[in-house]
Amino acid sequence: MLDITPQDWRLKAASLKFRSQAFINGKFTDSVSGKTFDSINPATGAVLASVAECDATDVDLAVAAGRRAFEDRRWSGMAPGDRKTVLLKLADLIRVNVEELALLDCLDMGKTITDASTIDAPGSAYFFQWYAEAIDKVYDEVAPTGPGNLALVRRVPLGVVGAVVPWNFPLDMATWKAAAALAAGNSVVLKPAEQSPLSALRLAELAAEAGVPDGVFNVVPGYGETAGRALGLHMDVDCLAFTGSTATGKRFMEYSGQSNLKQVWPETGGKSPNIVFADCGDLDAAADMAAFGIFFNQGEVCSANSRLYVERSIKDALVEKLIARAQGMQPGDPLDPASKMGAIVDEKQTQGIMRFIDHGKASANLVTGGERVQINGKGCFVQPTIFSDVAHDNPLARDEIFGPVLSIIPFDREEEAVTMANDSIYGLAASVWTDDLSRACRVSDRLNVGTVSVNTVDALSAQTPFGGMKQSGFGRDLSLHSFDKYTALKTTWIKYKL
Question: Which residues form the domain of 419?
């Protein structure tokens, strides 16, 4: 797809049909209130579609549809091989429609068409395929018992799963939740972020085409304070999977206590440290990946490596390399495959990033970037920005900015680097650069995070769990461990005559 020209992508974008209604019980439908909200292209300010604004009434309808589908076992009672066939077909349909899905995310939240078409959309197809293939390969257990007793321990689906996902990876995050929950046999009610609902609605349509029965996969676009809150408080939702801010994750925990004690699985904020030691043998690779780790997806990544701790003896050399890489990653038209960064998701997020940058200009050493720019006279774009010699207690180094802003903090001793890296309310991910295997193992063991990447950044795969510690939450996506969220252990004890 990299050979498709910007003009070709613009023509494809112009011909898109946006699904803008809620998807409930196998059908697209207006919100009961008739209200809508605008989905806006952050690169141009243009309104893409007026989307159904769901509230508690619509959530009630979606949950009821999901409950009926679960209770009559149209999906949960389907043979594992048959569920596998349906989800494999959905993976194939995502691949057939990969350009359309990529364009929806590109237009809706500003990510580059290159990332959307080569990473996000194909990745969603892969994850659906991976979970489909796992359906008939996860076995139940027979517990050890005395003679005359048979104890079966089975994983059974929970029922109705609510999934609330963020705007930074609209299709991927919907997939990470829905693929595992559906594979386990649950019904799903998905609330996409109000900034980026379009690909989730198209995904629902493709799921129906693949053969997912009516009521099993529902999508209710709307605002967090209405549709999201309604899911969190709903007495007939058995599980709530959430990715987003720490503050909102805490709110969902409160909703659980105020309602039916539903399981809540939060994957929340991050402020990931990246530690580069002087014994790193490939400083160019470290610079390449440090730049990728903070500027990929405009820095709108929960696990972005936004704190760079660098041993003082190599700091100047690494900063020089990073400046060059940042200057080569300036934002551009998201529909241009040559663009290295796209638009920030909306005006509110852009202004929030600029407040951090303005504070940094007065409290740290700005070495590159630091400006808001426009492309073709429009849009929410921020330059890749690097601050050097940042104090460890500076908000630049403490708070989740969720934008293309890197804070560089020098250190002199390994112990100092580890202490500063762990001195955060977050614990999602970390990276370590060293050619000393003992140091790599020693430091990795001491970092209080969910994933440590050594001599790379932000490593993940379908085979490994993704999630954090501390106020980054305790939910885990990906891998077979994801089934833990969406199933319960059920024991059936049979006593028989010998």
Answer: 273-470
357-363 contact pairs (CB < 8 A, 24+): 357/382, 357/385, 357/405, 359/395, 359/396, 360/385, 360/387, 360/390, 360/394, 360/396, 360/405, 360/407, 363/391, 363/394, 363/396
CA distance 279 to 283: 9
What residues does 430 pair with on adjacent strands? 452
Sign of CA dihedral 225, 228, 232, 236: positive
Domain count, the chain: 2
Considering the domain architecture, whether residues 127 and 187 belong to the same structural domain is answered as: yes
CATH number of the domain within which 77 lies: 3.40.605.10
Q: Which of 267, 300, 311, 400 is catalytic?
A: 267
- Known active-site residue 267: yes
Annotated catalytic residue, options 302, 311, 380, 400: 302
Q: What is the pLDDT of residues 229-255, one digit of tens each?
A: 999 999 999 999 999 999 999 999 999
Determine the residue type at 218: N
Radius of gyration for the chain, computed over Cα atoms and rounded to the nearest angstrom: 23
SS3 483: helix
Which amino acid, 327? Q
Share of the chain above pLDDT 70, in %: 100
- By DSSP bridging, strand 187-191 and strand 160-164 are parallel
Residue 332 belongs to a domain with what CATH number? Answer: 3.40.309.10
Model-level pTM? 0.96
Residue 215 lies in a domain: yes
Q: Is 302 annotated as catalytic?
A: yes
In a domain, 498, yes or no: no
Q: Is it the case that residue 106 has pLDDT exceeding 70?
A: yes
